[in-house]
Structure formats: structure tokens, C-alpha cells
Amino acid sequence: MKISSVMATGNGAFVVHKTLAETIPEYDLLSYSPLLTFFPPLLYLFKDKKCDLLHVSPDYAPFFYSKKIPMVVTFHGYNLDDELKSYNSFLQNLHYKTDLKWFTSKAIELATKVTCVSKYLANKVQEELHGNDVRVIYNGVNEELFRPDAHSRRASFDVVFSGNFTTKKGAYLLSNIAERLNPGIRILYTSGLRGRQANLDDSRLLAIGRVPHEQMPMVYQNADALIFPSVREGFGLAIAEAMACGLPIVASNNSAIPELVIDKKGGLLCEAHDADAFALAINTLADSTVLCREMGEFNRSKVESEFTLDRMVSSYSELFEEVLSG
Description:
By secondary structure, the chain is α/β, with parallel strands linked by helices. It is built from eleven helices and twelve strands. The protein folds into two domains: 3-140 and 308-325, Rossmann fold; 157-306, Rossmann fold, CATH 3.40.50. The protein has helices spanning 12-23, 90-97, 99-110, 119-128, 174-179, 216-221, 237-244, 257-260, 275-286, 289-306, 309-325; strands spanning 3-8, 27-32, 53-56, 71-75, 113-116, 134-136, 157-161, 185-190, 205-209, 225-228, 249-252, 267-270. The strands form two sheets. The protein has a six-stranded parallel β-sheet, with helices on both faces. The longest helix has 18 residues, at 289-306. It is globular, with a radius of gyration of 20 Å. 44% of the residues are buried. The model has no long low-confidence stretch (mean pLDDT 93).
């Protein structure tokens, strides 16, 4: 049996499929640069006609499809969301509403099974694309690798921003949030998997550059909290990883995020554009080591019960076997 996956690099979806390739012996991952999507017909070059099952994301699935090979399509995000219009360029919105929407709808039509990484995404697919029999399989993190690790006390309270440095991830808010923080609080920000670095001119904002995914546990373990002001999120892999490391979360109260972060138990949820609310939440955590510890313990327990690597791998393995036996 051979399962083939073809994915663009530079995002959390690729990380998930790479994890499946590392844990399921029959699973092969073929990667390509996102730049190739500017001319989608080139993606035909990556079609695998010798596999037994294809596992891809929906955006460009029709280019990898073969009539005699069953295809599982997994939604990791939803670029067709109207709420994202104001964060896209004119050409992006045109692309999303024309060819990408057609590709995505066609992917559902061709798919043997459709899965989503959150209930939020499943509802979107069912309501807006009329997808039926959509299965939710939450992303999982390696809780042995991403685990709490007590660090030595520092003079500062460090909050980490992990993700691609884009407007959709809420990176534009960091400067405004930093201005409102109490003394002794810093925000450490990565440049994400795409490596787009921005140097923000504020002593409370510290750029730590592009961090390889395998080194991210150390970043979380040396931080006190995670900030995640994303505009829309299909799942929130960085959130789950930080939760596994026992961090409290300050995040946007939208899309799939409340499925991970329970407000006032595992963190504090804010309106996506409200810099005042994010700053207040961070200041609140910085003032209470007890609250941070309790939220971190709650998050670790939630990951162990809902978002483990074994649970994700088992769910996909069962699905693949079901499709192949059918």
C-alpha cells in the first residue's frame, strides 16, 4: 500500500502532512514551492499515478487527481472566507473567488472522503460548499517533544508570537499591543515558516528570526505565554504546540481558536483587532504566576486528551484503511 501526499511548503498544513509521513510507513510526501501555484498546470508534474491513495488539501487537488485512485481531501484553512477580503489584494480576491473556488468545489466533487481539522471548517465546507459527510480530524502534536520544561526566572515576562509574519496572523497588531504593556514584558516574534522577517522598532519587541520547527519546543519552553491575534484560523497548530508546553494563551476569539482555547481556563480570548484587550490580557497574566500555572496545566491536560499525535495518526490511518477497503 502506498499513500501519496503532494503539498506546498511554508505553512502549518505542510507540517501536519510531514508528520504523517514520518509516522505512517506507507505515507510519502512530495513537496513543491508555493510559487508554482502562479501557474497551476505545472502541478500536473507532481501527479503520482502509482499510489493506492492520494491525500491532499483542496486548493489544487484536481491537478493531482487520477480517476482510478481514491482521494482524501483535508481542509486546513478556508481562503474563500468573505471575512478575509479586506486582508487580501485585489488580485488575491479575484483568484479566490474565481479559479480557486472552482478548484476547491471540484476537489469536493472528486474526493472519496473530505476531512477538516476543526468543527469550524467543517461547518464552512458544509454550509458554503455543500460538502456532505465531512469528518473532523483534529491536528495533533507530539506531546513528548512539546512538553513543559521549567525555565529559570528572568527579569522579563516573555510572550511569544509564532507564525508567518502576515496581516492575517495579526502581526500588524504587535506594535500597538507592545505600547500598552506594563514594564518588564516583552514580545518575542518569529518570522514563521516562510521566513519573512519584519524588524519592529520597539525595545519590547524582539525578533528571533526563522526557527526550524524541530526547535520550536525550546522557544515555547523558554516563554511565559503565547500571543495569537489571528484574523481567521483553520486550527491553530502553534496554539496546540504552546498548550502542550504548558503555556497560557492570549488569542483571538474567532474561527477555530475557541475549540482549542477555553476562555478563562486555558487563556484569555480577545476580539481580533483590539490591541487594548490583548495588552490587558497579557498584563493580567504577567501579574499572576498562579493564573499562568493553572492555565498552563489545564492546556497540557487538554492536549493530552484531544490533540495528541497518536490520536491524529490513528484517525487518519483508520480513514485510509476504510477508503482502501471500500
